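Record now logged for everyone:
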Amino acid sequence: MPKCFLVTGGAGFIGSNFVEHILGTQSGVRVITVDALTYAGSLANLEFAKGDSRHRFVQADIREEEVMLSVMRAEKPDCVVHFAAESHVDRSIESAAIFESVNVCGTLSLLEATRKYLDERGERREGFRFIHISTDEVYGDLPIEDTQTRFKENAPLRPSSPYAASKAASDMFVLSYVRTYGLPAIIARMCNNYGPRQHSEKFIPCMIQCALAGEALPLYGTGENVREWLHVEDACRAIAAIAERGRAGGIYNVSSNDARSNIEVAQAIVRAMRPYVAAHNMPQPTIEHVADRLGHDRRYALDATKCANELGWTSGIGFDQGIGDLIKASTSA
């Protein structure tokens, strides 16, 4: 396991959970969290690390190559885990430019800083890893009626949304640095994550907040679109396994293999909310169908066999358990 992690986007949802996972499971590790603290990142997400001498926070933008290089020179990480990204599909449809700037140019700047840092390390680059966190959306979608086909790591990239296109482009830059410069990078393509500290614009926390506020749960179109859902704790275990045992230059699909339509997810939230609303004499949550998202992908499905065979990783938290724990935490806050 690496001894010093540099985590970009570490004040965001998955990033902060990963920082917490590493600090909680690895006693002899240091973690340098870098975040620009835009709308999706918050120091409140790192409250657990307050007073921990193994953790340092740096407010910086990954697009500032010299700043990132100076942080690497000072802290000497042996693993960069790159979460920092603009990630909300709806925002990318409204305005794509920031997604190109952060996800593509930002990743390129970070790759350049890492390349220079490794050149300076010389022979000490052995064992270093650059882990790029990507998404199942780079593969495009599958027909809803096709319940068998799953994307493998060598599937062609067919992104639909501007967000997915920006992530596919950043994936290609990472792979080009592996081929051209021998950068020891790995790509982790994740299915939909959910869990504590997720931003309220995302599907599951948005639904829970609407239910708590006594508002209808807004569901795009018919709600038949299918996604795979992975609890963030399982995602963090997968990323840690990749950091420890992943092959440089490799790609790993990370998925729960738990596929549900959006309407099934909304219905699960309604069911899980029933004890709370009954206890507080609130009206039962309802689901309201709203205008569909432009270019809405139909079905995502990843084949995570490689992750299981090479890394010994499989998901462990069932969806109903995860949703129940999340709603319990939300209603007791």
